Amino acid sequence: MTNHITTTWLGDMKFESTNPSGHNLFIDAGEENGGKSEGYRPKALMLSALAGCSGLDVASLIKKMKLEVDSFKIDIDANLTEEHPKYYDKVAMHFHFYGSNLSEKKLQKAVDLSIEKYCGVMEMFRQFSEIVIETHFHKK
Questions:
Q1: Strand partners, 79
Q2: SUPFAM superfamilies recorded for this chain (predicted)?
């Protein structure tokens, strides 16, 4: 399957990018780089893609496993190299699950399945980053 996107320059440092979902997004540089901060930063968008990819897997598995989870979030801290081309050489992903009846073992299995088997963005990141995954359970 081939995905096709078109990214169009809107002037200055701003671009609009299509998406197969039909929802477009804007990409822009910060003011320090000649932009107006009117869009996403490309490298940060990669981290959102990583969290989103794994998050969709975990949400699907929560549903399939019929697990009780009030909410969950994924925090990512990534180290950017100092030399050009700058890239993320170290990435730490923190999965936070909230609820009064969390099945820690099954939720950990859902995270493991995502990061080891299903998440294609994770597999791409493995090509250039050292990745650390931590799972945190917050019982109410």
A1: 90
A2: OsmC-like
What is the secondary structure of 68-81 as a DSSP string?
A: --SEEEEEEEEEEP
What is the Cα–Cα distance from 100 to 66, expressed in whole angstroms? Answer: 15
Query: Whole-angstrom Cα distance, residue 75 to residue 88?
Result: 15
Looking at residue 115, what DSSP letter applies? I
User: What is the per-residue pLDDT across 115-130, written as a single tens digit (0 to 9) for each?
Assistant: 999 999 999 999 999 9
- Angstrom CA distances, 44 to 29, 63, 87, 119, stand at 11, 28, 11, 18
Cβ-contact 122, 129 below 8 angstroms: no
* CATH class assigned to 42-139: alpha beta
CA 112 – CA 99 distance, rounded (Å): 20
Q: What is the pLDDT of residue 1?
A: 85
Residue 37: phi and psi, rounded to 5, are 55, 40
